[in-house]
Write a structure and sequence with these properties.
The protein is an alpha/beta fold and about 850 residues long. It has a 9-stranded mixed beta sheet, sandwiched between helices. Helix 10 packs across helix 12 (about 345-360) and helix 14 (about 390-400) crosses helix 15. Bound molecules: ligand T68.
Length: about 850
């Protein structure tokens, strides 16, 4: 222990710390040089760009950690109610640039390093993405942490520190996805702080011992003792998250699994060396890899282990913090709010009940009332196949005590339902947390609903479906108030200021300040300039610059088989997102074929009228999702044929690009370069979408269905006149599905022609695709591609027409951007804070 009783000693500490926090030029230079020598053991003579990045990163990290410690101390002293955001995914992307911008140190670093012969900005590209997420759900968690920090909320993120993030995608033979491991920690990660001092045991398997009355798990006498058969350690790694223009730095705590002991000494001494090491392997397996499925549950034992490992460690951490306050348990919901990012962490509900009842001796009902007041659940999908269910048999083996608790939760719950609806057994069957069948299953979404005080969807249309369809019986039982909407949002710092500095600067110049970065509704003032000629020109110039830069990236990094550079004068049409049947990339590529066939047969005169287009695709398919991989193959086949068409004039009018390994960092390059982006899911299937917001914020227009957040985006920008809408409405979908399935309506000739062209072998051997295409025209068109197809090319024609009038197009682009204020993640987290968490900002005291 440091002896701080002497005032002089304390003052010395404070003075030195103040020095360390200084970010004047010479302090930055000192810190940088110090890291080059003592962290990296290098010198200016052997320092490459990556080394320079590492030294700079360590120097920035030092700054971050000071503010982070101050924030955490401030929270501890102020002791507000905190919210814990539990997510199995955080899709962070890169950190350094975001960090120096949020902390307002970019210029200082730039200047300091320039004097030393280094261009700070070029070092950003050396950083590997932290890609511990699949798609929208993981990126949403990252955006929310940025906003929570910016608004000084007392929040803490919890997640898993996977050794391997989302796989790296490469395209083999110019057409097929192959997956490579993403070993992102190869060169260590400067943005985390290993907390070997923060570790908890986590148990699995084993048996449950009845209490003395021999009625463990029985109503009225539920306490029992669980004796796990296997233990691992959860070790904390902390990731500091700086807010923008504030001293608040929040924390994301990621758990890594380690063995209880390095190896089993007794087997070691018995000469069983391999066995002694195997235990270490088994433990480390738990957080080894992120499951690469989006909108489909994995159903694997290891995934369930991950989920329990996560909530068990997290709750020990949260309850340890609470216990330091010496408050009665009744205070728990006044100090702790837990947000479940989908059902993935919903075992936390059961775990908290278990800890309260079995370990702290609370009565069942008292404990359960507390649990329900602590938890809230965000639903991200209504697709039935995407809802998590676990076999009771698996749960019983891995978590025997939890399984009994779930049965009890269900029993009490169904009794209360029966009281309201006596004798309605059909209702009990529908609402049971346990699904009966040849294999009993635990419905995690129902567990999450029953164990939470509030359930939210992520866009208005989605929340309506959650209330009226997915959880209809529950809304009837609990009342509508339990089900709320919080429309998703994105952080304008990363998605405009960092990703598109050119547009950010233009907006700031025109608005006269950068206040919009903290209050995005300020953008509405741009509307006044939508027709301003000078402004329009500058606006177009930014888009041109970004398109040229993307064209350059494609030329350098995407295998274009000698096709030459893409024409950055063409209209850039982008669809980048996870590949899924409901997102209908298949419809997009069929539309591309349709356009290609039309151009092929067009006369020279007709061709003069055609707007040149570059179709840009990107996205990963879950490795086990056959149809998604087939769609990637088809896109690439079509691409290869179109781009190699012997008709050079045609090639000027249409071009297809598949950008491999779509990621946060690639999104930051691609999104600012888009003229039009595609959000074309079957109405009622995309919960929200968040890239749609990113595209529009960057002045891109939308082509889309009335689905997810598209609906609200259209409202906020001033109606569907400012975007390109087509397709069936959500209310029509059920009926259309029945029609397609049973009555087989006439298939549109244009669609038939496209399918015939593919089947004829025009895009190579068609045998891999025949099944997929035949299903569409028989009874397998679940996502209604044949139904929406005729109106899709028609909407694309409206896009072309609008693009020809560049003044009109630019006005639309400006008005689109001006309407995006509502879609800031700042607004979303404020909604959560008010409607769900009941927490207030806890800003740091002004620094002396
Ligand atoms: C997405 N969901 C929604 N899931 O599809 C999207 N799933 O509409 C929405 O905007 C976004 O969430 C944010 O609310 C996902 O991204 C997953 O990635 C996922 C991961 C594991 C298991 C299931």
């Amino acid at each position: 222990e440091v002896d701080l009783s002497n005032i002089a000693t304390l003052e010395l500490w404070n003075k030195i710390r103040k020095d360390c926090e200084s970010v004047d030029t010479s302090s930055i230079q000192r810190s940088f040089v110090n890291h080059v020598y003592s962290t990296l053991a290098r010198t200016p003579y052997n320092l490459d760009e990556f080394g320079a990045y590492q030294a700079a990163a360590h120097s920035v990290r030092d700054q971050l950690i000071h503010k982070w410690i101050s924030t955490q101390q401030h929270f501890t002293r102020s002791n507000p109610k905190r919210v814990y955001y539990l997510s199995l995914e955080f899709l962070m992307g890169r950190t350094m640039q975001n960090c120096v911008i949020n902390m307002d140190m970019e210029e200082a670093y730039s200047k300091a390093l320039r004097e030393m012969g280094l261009a700070f900005e070029t070092l950003y590209d050396q950083e590997t993405d932290a890609a511990l997420g699949n798609g929208g759900l993981g990126r949403l968690a990252a955006c929310y942490m940025d906003s929570l920090a910016t608004l000084d909320y007392p929040a803490l993120g919890y997640g898993l520190r996977y050794t391997y993030g989302i796989f790296e995608q490469r395209i083999r033979n110019g057409e097929d996805q192959v997956e490579y491991p993403d070993y992102w920690l190869r060169f260590t990660n400067p943005w985390e702080v290993a907390r070997v001092d923060v570790a908890y045991p986590v148990g699995f398997y084993g048996s449950v011992h009845n209490d003395s009355a021999g009625r463990a798990g029985q109503p009225g006498q539920p306490a029992a003792r669980w004796e796990p058969a296997e233990f691992v350690q959860a070790v904390a790694y902390d990731v500091p998250i700086p807010g923008y223009d504030t001293d608040t730095v929040l924390n994301i705590r990621l758990w890594s699994s380690k063995p209880q002991r390095q190896f089993d000494l007794s087997s070691f001494n018995d000469g069983e060396y391999e066995k002694s090491v195997a235990e270490k392997q088994r433990a480390e397996n738990i957080t080894s890899v992120l499951y690469p499925n989006d909108n489909t549950p994995a159903g694997k034992e290891l995934r369930l282990k991950q989920q329990y490992f996560f909530v068990c460690a997290t709750l020990q951490d949260i309850l340890r913090r609470f216990s330091k306050l010496n408050l009665p348990w009744s205070e728990l919901p006044n100090k702790v709010g837990i947000q479940l990012n989908d059902t993935h962490p919903s075992l936390g509900i059961v775990e908290l009940q278990r800890v309260l009842v079995d370990e702290h001796g609370l009565e069942w009902d008292i404990a359960w009332a507390l649990v329900q007041r602590v938890y809230a659940y965000t639903n991200h999908t209504v697709l039935p196949e995407a809802l998590e269910c676990w076999p009771v048999s698996l749960m019983e083996r891995l978590l025997p005590r939890h399984m009994r608790i779930i049965f009890d939760i269900n029993l009490y719950f169904l009794r209360s339902v029966e009281q309201r609806f006596p004798g309605d057994y059909e209702r009990l069957r529908r609402m049971s947390i346990i699904e009966e069948g040849h294999q009993q299953m635990v419905r995690m979404a129902y567990l999450a609903v029953v164990g939470s005080h509030t359930v939210n969807g992520v866009a208005r249309i989605h929340s309506d479906l959650v209330r009226s369809k997915l959880f209809r019986d529950f809304a009837e039982f609990y009342g509508d108030d339990k089900f709320v909407n919080i429309t998703n949002g994105i952080t304008p710092r990363r998605w405009l200021h960092v990703a598109n500095p050119q547009l950010s600067a233009l907006i700031t110049k025109r608005l006269g300040s950068n206040r919009w970065l903290k209050d995005l509704t300020e953008l509405s003032r741009l509307k006044a300039f939508a027709d301003d000629e000078d402004f329009q020109q500058e606006w177009r110039q930014v888009k041109r610059t970004r398109k040229e830069s993307l064209a350059e990236y494609i030329q350098k990094h995407v295998d274009t088989a000698g096709e030459g550079p893409v024409n950055s004068e063409a209209l850039f049409d982008v669809q980048v997102k996870r590949i899924h049947e409901y997102k209908r990339q298949l419809m997009n590529i069929l539309g591309v074929v349709h356009r290609y066939l039309r151009i092929k047969e067009a006369s020279a005169e007709e061709r003069r009228d055609i707007v040149p287009r570059v179709f840009i695709f990107g996205g990963k398919a879950a490795p086990g999702y056959h149809t998604a991989k087939l769609i990637i193959k088809l896109i690439n086949r079509v691409k290869n044929v179109i781009n190699a068409d012997p008709d050079a004039e045609l090639r000027k009018l249409i071009r297809v690009v598949y950008i491999p390994n779509y990621s946060v960092t690639l999104a930051e390059r691609i999104i600012p370069a888009s003229d039009i982006s595609e959000h074309i899911s079957t109405a009622g299937t995309e919960a929200s979408g968040t890239s749609n917001m990113k595209f529009v914020l960057n002045g891109g227009l939308l082509i889309g269905t009335r689905d997810g957040a598209n609906v609200e985006i259209a409202e906020h920008i001033g109606g569907w006149d400012l975007a390109f809408e087509f397709g069936a409405k959500a209310e029509e979908v059920d009926d259309l599905r029945n029609k397609v399935r049973y009555l087989r309506p006439e298939i549109h000739p244009a669609f038939r022609r496209v399918v015939e062209a593919i089947k004829s072998g025009q895009f190579g051997d068609s045998s891999p695709f025949v099944n997929m295409l035949d299903r569409l025209v028989s009874d397998g068109d679940y996502y209604l591609i044949t139904v929406d197809f005729p109106s899709y090319p028609e909407a694309q024609e409206r896009v072309d027409a609008a693009y020809k009038d560049q003044k009109k197009w630019t006005r639309m682009s400006i008005e689109n951007c001006a309407g995006m204020g509502f879609f800031s993640a700042d607004r979303s987290v404020q909604d959560y804070a008010k409607k769900i968490w009941g927490i207030n900002p806890c800003p740091p005291p002004p620094s002396k």
